[in-house]
Every structure is written in structure tokens, then in C-alpha cells.
Amino acid sequence: MSVQNHPDSGFAGRLADEVFSKLLNDILSGRLPGGSIVQERRLAESLGVSRSPLRDALGRLEGQGLLVRNPRGILTIRIVTLEDYLNCLNLRLLIEPSAAALACRKMPEQEIARLDGLLTHLEEQDDPSHDALWAFDDILHDALAGASGNPFIVKAVVEMRRYTSIFERHQLTGRTKPGTDDHRAIVNALRNRDEAGVSGLMKAHLEAIRGKVLAHF
């Protein structure tokens, strides 16, 4: 990312949004690992921005709990612990199966077709990239939450998935296809408008990932 400062206030807001998105992606992917000290000058230089949009983005990330202050008051990337992960996943297990059932009833056919097409494209590749596989994981879970029609479900799923994604991407680096088979079953259930089926598949999918994580401990 290389963006320049601009006097327009609207541009400044968009610039802060871009910086926020870039830093969020770097945190979720592990490029900014938990425990790292946030060095404003170095980050500003690497992003090609001034301190103002950077500080705006950092403030938003801190407000969302992804940045924390260490005992010396220094801003650092939050370390997502196993306890954090399990607490977040338990909440997802309470919410996402129901959200998937609601989405199965409400999701437009064209959205289901889009998900099916994206997944088929991954399945047809001999060696899809790790980032592409995780990206589809994000797309599917976000689409199901969004199609539930409940904004509180969307907010909870987005927030909890940030923590679980950080932890899983660190712990499950050896997985070549994160949940692809599970995702295919979920998408097929969506196409068939099988509410009970998609709810059960989502529950089993989350429980299977939890089992893989716990197998590392």
C-alpha cells in the first residue's frame, strides 16, 4: 500500500479507512503477529501515510480490542489466547447454526449461485493459495450472517470471527484446504433450502475446527 496525503477531508477519511483495512488484514493474516509492538513511525513509512490517518486507524483497532496496551502503556497487537478462542467459538456455536438456517430461508438465489461459483473455482484448482481458501471462508460465513437479516447476529459473528480467525490461522498453518469439504456441504444445503441441514452442518463445521485446534494442545 502506498498512498499520499491529501488536503480534502473526505479523502482523509477514506485514507484512514484504507489504512484500517490494511492493518486489519495484516492482523488477521498474522503478518502483524500478536504481541508485536506498534511502531507508528515505521508503520506510517511502510504505508506511505502521515501519522494522522494511521492514528485514526489504530484508535479504531484499539476500540475493537485488536490492539491493547501492555503494562508499560505501549500499544501492541493483541495476543489471542486459547481461552479467548474457545470463548469466541462457543458464542459462534450458539449463533451461527441459527443464522445459517435463517439465511437458508432468505438468501437470494443469485447469492447462493455466487457462493457456489466461488467454491467451485477453488475446488477446480490443483493447489489454491492459502489466502484464497481463507478468503472464501470469510465470504461464506459473512454471507450467511448477513442473509440472516439480523444486524445483531452480523455484528457478533464479525467480531467473534476476527478472534477465532487470528487464532486458527496461527495454529492451523498446515491445513491446505480449511473447511472446503464442509463448505461444499453447507453450500449444497443452501441450494436445496434445507434449513435443518445447513444448521447442523454449520454446527459440525465449527466443532470440527475446534477439534483440530485442540489437537495441537
Written description of the protein model:
There is one protein chain. The protein is mainly α and 217 residues long. It is 71% helix and 3% strand. It has 2 domains: 9-77, Winged helix-like DNA-binding domain superfamily/Winged helix DNA-binding domain (Arc Repressor Mutant, subunit A), CATH 1.10.10.10; 82-214, GntR ligand-binding domain-like (Four Helix Bundle (Hemerythrin (Met), subunit A)). Strands 1-2 form a two-stranded antiparallel sheet. The chain is globular and about 50 Å long. The two termini are 37 Å apart. Mean pLDDT is 89; it is low at 1-7.
| Total beta strands | 2
| Whole-number mean pLDDT | 89
Low-confidence stretches: 1-7
CATH third-tier fold name of the largest domain: Four Helix Bundle (Hemerythrin (Met), subunit A)
Question: What CATH first level of the largest domain would be assigned?
Answer: Mainly Alpha
Q: Roughly how much helix do the residues carry, as a percent range? A: over 70%
Cα end-to-end separation: 37 Å
The shape is globular
Q: Could you say how many structural domains there are in total?
A: 2
CATH superfamily of the largest domain: GntR ligand-binding domain-like
> What is the oligomer described by this structure?
single chain
Reported CATH architecture of the largest domain:
Up-down Bundle
